[in-house]
């Protein structure tokens, strides 16, 4: 707030140290306490009371040339649940990373929180709660308000404005992405960004292990927007690599939700987005029993429930795999399915581990393991930069695949020997430029890029467009 340029200079130069302060896990705590630390608005609030006037409110924002909007309704903030208007910390934090890691100008970023009420009883009673003190709007009232918002953003900022949905509840997240992906430049980070960064980690791990993606068996704990989004992108990449149908690839991917393994006998009670993952198998309620029955090579957690990868589960994974891949992705740290230390200790140092929140290096039998962090910050800043520099008007799944492949390809053998399946964050701006170039190239290839003619060297062009926090020299 006091010195934006200096803030970004400090963040860019010390990104590995400061990322956990600007984003996970500190951002979760900041959202929980947002009402009591609020000084002045850092983003734009749109309240239900402004229905019919959203375009007018958008025009009040002082910056005119906006390129990226990150929007939340605060209903599912990380693994913390409904924080209502206090969820503003998420769009603010995400856009700080768009600037620091993807080098989009800070003035071109707009954080928005849509205030449709909250179902959090303690917030409704809190004198410091900054939002509407009413239960959440749902159904037609909610979707009419969101539709007015989507139309107003496009009318005010044009066809090329990138709208990133963030931390919406499952039922709304899939519905909104489905409704607007063919008419707007939209991207859901929880569904698509998480999926791309997880796929990148798998690409890197399997390359180092000389294993093929198409031969793996996946088991997910958690079948919400993150779990099904990851599963779908992995299936798309398997179908691309193995030259098979996506339906065939899905057969190697199994999901467990709160009621157990998703199987065909549960089809009638399943939500629509879970139905493609219902396979022919007898019902299994417990994760441990599912691991023993399915014998997965890769175990991925996105359940939002901490300590669900128990000692028995990790041991069962190690019993059927020489090098089990275990990804405990739920945020913040308290919700992680297991810690890095638990994964390495219970697998006798054989697990290839990544988490959503940062963990310290672990020493087992004299060897130091550096756990990877499957952080969406590896993907969305580069993806956003690629969309901006190409003037793209739509986001396609192929763009996510090339972004994941590029990130996975940046992991060296030296990184992997330390246990890392992601490159060090110290190189993130260079990585973002390479991802942006791949995404932009795909946008031109698919015919959705509007910035013509296409630059001959997209990496060089991406780097030339990157914001740098330096003071101009006037002498």
Automatic annotation (TrEMBL):
GO MF terms here are: malate dehydrogenase (decarboxylating) (NADP+) activity; metal ion binding; NAD binding
InterPro entries tied to this protein: Aminoacid_DH-like_N_sf, Malic_enzyme_CS, Malic_N_dom, Malic_N_dom_sf, Malic_NAD-bd, Malic_OxRdtase, NAD(P)-bd_dom_sf
The entry's keywords: Metal-binding, Oxidoreductase
Specify the Malic enzyme NAD-binding domain's residue ranges: 191-444
Co-factor note (free text): Divalent metal cations. Prefers magnesium or manganese.
Report the active site residues. 23, 94
Boundaries of each Malic enzyme N-terminal domain copy?
1-181
Any single GO CC term annotated in Swiss-Prot or TrEMBL for this entry = chloroplast
PROSITE patterns found in the cross-reference section: MALIC_ENZYMES
| Annotated residues for binding of a divalent metal cation | 166-167, 190
| Cofactor annotation | Mn(2+); Mg(2+)
Entry binding sites for (S)-malate: 76, 331, 375
Q: Which domain of life is it from?
A: Eukaryota
Q: Name one GO biological process term.
A: malate metabolic process
Family, as annotated? Belongs to the malic enzymes family.
Q: What is this protein called?
A: Malic enzyme
What organism is listed for this UniProt entry?
Answer: Kalanchoe fedtschenkoi
């Amino acid at each position: 707030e006091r010195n934006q340029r200096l803030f970004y200079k400090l963040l860019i130069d010390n990104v590995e140290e400061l990322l956990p302060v600007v984003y996970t896990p500190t951002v979760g705590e900041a959202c929980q306490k947002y009402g009591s630390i609020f000084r002045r608005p850092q983003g734009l609030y749109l309240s239900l009371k402004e229905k019919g006037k959203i375009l007018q409110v958008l025009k009040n924002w002082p910056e005119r040339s906006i390129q990226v909007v990150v929007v939340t309704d605060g209903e599912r903030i990380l693994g913390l649940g409904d924080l209502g208007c206090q969820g503003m910390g998420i769009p603010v934090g995400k856009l700080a990373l768009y600037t620091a890691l993807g080098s989009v100008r800070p003035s071109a970023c707009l954080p928005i929180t849509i205030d449709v009420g909250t179902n959090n009883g303690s917030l409704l009673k809190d004198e410091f709660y900054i939002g509407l003190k009413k239960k959440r709007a749902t159904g037609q009232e909610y979707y009419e308000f969101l539709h007015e918002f989507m139309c107003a953003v496009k009318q005010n900022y044009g066809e090329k404005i990138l709208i990133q949905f963030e931390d919406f509840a499952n039922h709304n997240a899939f519905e909104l992405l489905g409704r607007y992906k063919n008419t707007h430049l939209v991207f859901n980070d929880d569904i698509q960004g998480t999926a791309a960064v997880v796929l990148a980690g798998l690409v890197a791990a399997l390359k180092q292990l000389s294993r093929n993606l198409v031969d793996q068996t996946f088991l997910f704990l958690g079948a919400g927007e993150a779990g099904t989004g990851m599963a779908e992108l992995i299936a798309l990449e398997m179908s691309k690599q193995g030259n098979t149908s996506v339906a065939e690839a899905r057969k190697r991917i199994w999901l467990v939700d709160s009621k157990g393994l998703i199987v065909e006998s549960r089809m009638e009670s399943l939500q629509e987005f879970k139905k493609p993952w219902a396979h022919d198998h007898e019902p299994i309620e417990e994760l441990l029993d599912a691991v023993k029955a399915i014998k997965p090579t890769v175990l991925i957690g996105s359940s939002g429930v901490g300590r669900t990868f128990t000692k028995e589960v990790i041991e069962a994974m190690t019993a059927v795999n020489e090098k089990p891949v275990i990804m405990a992705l739920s945020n913040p740290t308290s919700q992680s399915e297991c810690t890095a230390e638990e994964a390495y200790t219970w697998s006798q140092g054989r697990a290839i581990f990544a988490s959503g929140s940062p963990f310290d290096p672990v020493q087992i039998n004299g060897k130091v393991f550096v756990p990877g962090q499957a952080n969406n910050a590896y993907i969305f800043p580069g993806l956003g930069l690629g969309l901006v520099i190409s003037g793209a008007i739509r986001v396609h799944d192929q763009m996510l695949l090339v972004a994941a492949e590029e990130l996975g390809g940046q992991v060296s053998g030296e990184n992997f020997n330390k246990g890392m399946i992601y490159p060090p964050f110290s190189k993130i701006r260079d990585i973002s430029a390479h991802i942006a170039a791949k995404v932009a190239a795909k946008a031109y290839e698919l015919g959705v890029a509007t910035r013509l003619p296409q630059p001959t060297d997209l990496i060089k062009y991406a780097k030339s467009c990157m914001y740098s926090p330096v003071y101009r020299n006037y002498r």
